[in-house]
Design a protein that fits this description.
The complex is a heterodimer of chains A (199) and B (352). With 199 residues, chain A is of the alpha+beta class. Chain A has helices at 8-13, 15-24, 32-52, 62-71, 152-161, 163-198, and strands spanning 73-77, 82-84, 92-98, 100-107, 111-119, 123-124, 138-141, 145-151. Helix content of chain A is 47%, strand content 23%. In chain A, strands 1-8-3-6 form a four-stranded antiparallel beta sheet. The longest helix of chain A is centred in the C-terminal third of the chain and has 36 residues, at 163-198. Classes of the chains: A alpha+beta (199), B mainly alpha (352).
């Protein structure tokens, strides 16, 4: 279905479909004037949908998520560009709005070892929201990618200004970290069980 | 990265040019720079109150406008109550300044005479002209000229109109301004810039807020104390004591000098008992400030070495007279706060 850039009309017809299209196409509006006029109307629902699917923003109302979208910093990374380096102090969380991001770690000998690849709708770097912990891995764009940065200072400001909202986010964050800790414990147990057999 | 390398010099050139234009504009409009700094300080002071109200569901714009109304009302009250006292005090001081000056000259001539009488053969120069030139400079000291110099930098109109408006936008749209600034930062430095801005902001905020609360406490308490014992010019003395408090080590002493001068020159005031009373009041204010207010308001202090303080005051005095002496140390402290944050940060990025 060809989406006509008529803001409201197209949105009411099929919001989800429209937003999917929005995420992909950048050249849907060639004329900058019209692109500007329709910008806020078309981008916002897309973003809200993208964010409400994330576990860290679980349980937030649409209005609250709309508030969060105003805090986010949209940044575009060229293919091969580094988002952040291992050991650098972490400044915040990134949500992938489009593109692909590789997570790599340097192993002895200076070789880069790829741990994971993130795609549109994923997020990474959430531990930096808790504290300025040094980054545990390097992240690099595998193609031109648009990321939405949510820096820790912005979360700190949210804690001061809208504590109820911030507590929700922090609780979600705690849940994520707890899940990962459980998983790590399970992995550790398994490794310990394997250890005597081998050695 | 090849693309990054190809454009890096152009990009650096662009950023240098943009920041040069920005800095030049600010300095060309000195008044604007003053208004911006004042607005920044004000927004630092207002933000805790606004956050407190926002937590209770009041919109920021409403809070700021409410604060403006209340502060405007208080200022009006202050102008109506303290204004007349201050203006008569200043008027009296300017009127009687020649008499005071003559008294001071006489006093110094007497001192010199008594020294030469007791220690014959010791050649000392005329004290009064020497001191006058050293302290005030050759053009002479007038309160009105100091005021006009101050207002040249900071015209009343600017303060009254520009500062509240800029402060309003800093407080309500501060995040938008910061976001627009961060948009210009290249990806490589984005995280660094984010953390650096927030750290400098936090450090400056707590420093400025603490200093002002501290100075306000000393100023108000000294004014009340001086008014209680009936020393003339108590408001002027209080203001000087409060301002002096911005300077570590020497500040409290410098702040007490006006009180001493007033006592010296007011007939019947310069007695041992009176000096003791005034000294006790200053000591009590300093003690309560040091034990109760300072730890609460400033907490972690910005330690400046005494030598740095003395050098700062001297250089400030050389460059901009009395105003320079007052501004120098707080400025040095602010620079120190920024340098500390930046250097520790650059170290963690292994740039330094």
């Amino acid at each position: 279905m060809q989406v006509v850039p008529l803001g409201g009309l197209a949105l009411t017809a099929s919001r989800a479909k429209y937003s999917m299209e929005c995420m992909k196409g950048d050249n849907r509006m060639k004329n900058p004037v019209w692109a500007y006029i329709f910008r806020s109307k078309s981008d916002e629902p897309t973003l809200v949908e993208l964010l409400s699917a994330l576990p860290i923003f679980e349980g937030l109302s649409r209005t609250q998520i709309r508030g969060i979208t105003r805090l986010l910093h949209e940044r575009t990374y060229a293919k091969g560009e580094t988002v952040f380096n291992e050991t650098e102090p972490g400044a915040g969380l990134y949500i992938i709005s489009s593109g692909r991001i590789a997570v790599t770690k340097q192993i002895e000998g200076g070789e880069q070892f790829e741990l994971a690849e993130f795609v549109e709708g994923n997020f990474f770097g959430e531990l930096a929201l808790i504290d300025e912990i040094p980054r545990s891995a390097t992240t690099t764009a595998l193609e031109t990618s648009t990321l939405l940065a949510f820096p820790k200072p912005d979360l700190d400001r949210l804690i001061e200004r809208q504590p109820q909202l911030a507590v929700r986010i922090l609780r979600n964050l705690a849940r994520l970290v707890a899940q990962r800790l459980l998983q790590a414990n399970r992995n550790l147990e398994e490794l310990q069980r394997l250890l005597p057999k081998e050695g | 990265m090849a693309t990054a390398k190809r454009y890096s010099s152009v990009r650096i050139g662009y950023y240098l040019f943009a920041s040069a234009v920005f800095v030049a504009t600010i300095f060309a409009l000195f008044q604007l720079a003053g208004a911006l700094v004042a607005s920044l300080v004000l927004s630092f002071l207002l933000s805790p109150i606004i956050n407190f109200a926002e937590n209770r569901g009041v919109h920021r714009v409403v809070v700021v406008l409410g604060i403006y109304l209340v502060v405007g009302g208080l200022l009006l009250l202050l102008v109506l109550v303290v204004g007349p006292i201050l203006s008569t005090e200043l008027q009296r001081l300017t009127q009687e300044f020649p008499t005071y000056e003559a008294k001071l000259a006489e006093l110094l001539i007497n001192i010199r005479a008594s020294i030469t009488r007791r220690l014959p053969g010791v050649e000392i120069p005329e004290l009064y002209p020497y001191l006058k030139e050293r302290i005030i400079g050759t053009e002479g000291f007038e309160l009105t000229s100091m005021m006009s110099r101050l207002s040249g930098v900071f015209s009343i109109l600017t303060v009254a109109v520009l500062v509240p408006i800029i402060t309003f936008f800093f407080v309500v749209d501060g995040h938008v301004i910061q976001k627009a600034f961060l948009r210009m930062i290249p990806n490589r430095y984005f995280e660094m810039a984010v953390l650096l801005i927030s750290r400098i902001g936090n450090a400056l905020q707590s420093f400025i807020r603490g200093q002002l609360i501290d100075a306000l406490y000393v100023g108000v308490m000294t004014t009340i104390g001086m008014a209680a014992i009936g020393l003339p010019y108590f408001v002027v003395i209080g203001i000087f004591a409060g301002l002096g408090n911005l300077i570590p080590y020497l500040g409290p002493i410098m702040g007490a000098i006006p009180a001493l001068v007033v006592m010296l020159l007011t007939p019947g005031w310069f007695t041992g008992a009176n000096i003791l009373i005034v000294a006790i009041i200053f000591a009590v204010v300093q003690f309560t400030e040091g034990t109760f207010v300072y730890p609460l308001a400033i907490g972690k202090s910005v330690d400046l070495h005494p030598l740095v303080v003395i050098l700062g005051i001297t250089i400030g005095g050389q460059l901009a007279g009395i105003v320079g002496m007052l501004i120098a140390v707080p400025l040095v402290s602010i620079v120190k706060v920024i340098v500390e944050v930046v250097s520790s940060y650059l170290k963690s990025y292994k740039i330094l």
